[in-house]
Amino acid sequence: MNSDVVIAMLAVAISRSTPLVFGSLSGVLCERSGVVNIAIEGMMLAAAFTGFFVGIYTHSLPIAAVAAVVSGVLLASLHAVLSIHFRVDQIISGTVVNIFAFGVTGFLNRQLFATGAPPGQATLPSIEIPLLADIPFVGRVLFEQKPLTYLAIASVAIVHIVLFKTVWGLRVRAVGEHPLAADTVGIGVLRTRYQAVLLGGAMAGLGGAYFTLESVPHFEPLMTNGRGFIALAAMIFGKWTPLGAWGAALLFGVAEALPVTLQIQRIDVPFQLVGLLPYVLTIVVLAGVIGRATPPAAIGTPYEKR
To answer: What is the 3-state secondary structure (H, E, C) of 56-80?
Structure first.
């Protein structure tokens, strides 16, 4: 492959990694506080539908993006109430949220858009950053992207700083490692976990917004296609750190961009076979073949204030 093809593939990989970056950051925030979150898939799907629905009727992509974030936060609230307040098994709680999102979005899509969505929906435009876009190689890869992609990259830095350089981040990590000790020194364990899960829901909402506001201007049932679960694998591969999760998400992004590149190059490889790469990589990561990561000590353990 020549340099232009490589640049194009990497640019596509950066774009395709956007929902994975947001999803993995959602997982990092939740699980660093001690709450398992397998509901990212459902949050992203609900956000994708909400963003599409609001965008259709308001003709405002920024408002649609905000609505997508709100829907992610609302589903995160459900997960938080079930798993933190009622101390429901967190895997079951996340599964409930996923099933709820799958069912409701599919039902509403059939009821509202059975004959097709109203015309006029658009996607967020690409933004070329002056001067930076002119940097050889890197400029075309990083600085000719769309708004949510830029926001995903910025969010990695922001979440890293918040988790490891602020008092609130220290509290989140403390309640995820040893909630009783954190409670003993006056940290509100339940309050901190609620905050982390809701912020994680906002991240998942942004990831969902990518599908209908930045990728394609329409909604299809189950269009997230397992990206929430792949994001969890990226989080584990990245050892529950924002920077590590970003690197893993980029790797999965390359795996998604490769089939497109091979098609463009007319390389005779079955598309279905190459399309399995992200999912095979997910299985490899979750099986611990690449190396086992140690999660926060109190993850998945409900806390009852004594």
So the answer is: HHHCCHHHHHHHHHHHHHHHHHHHH
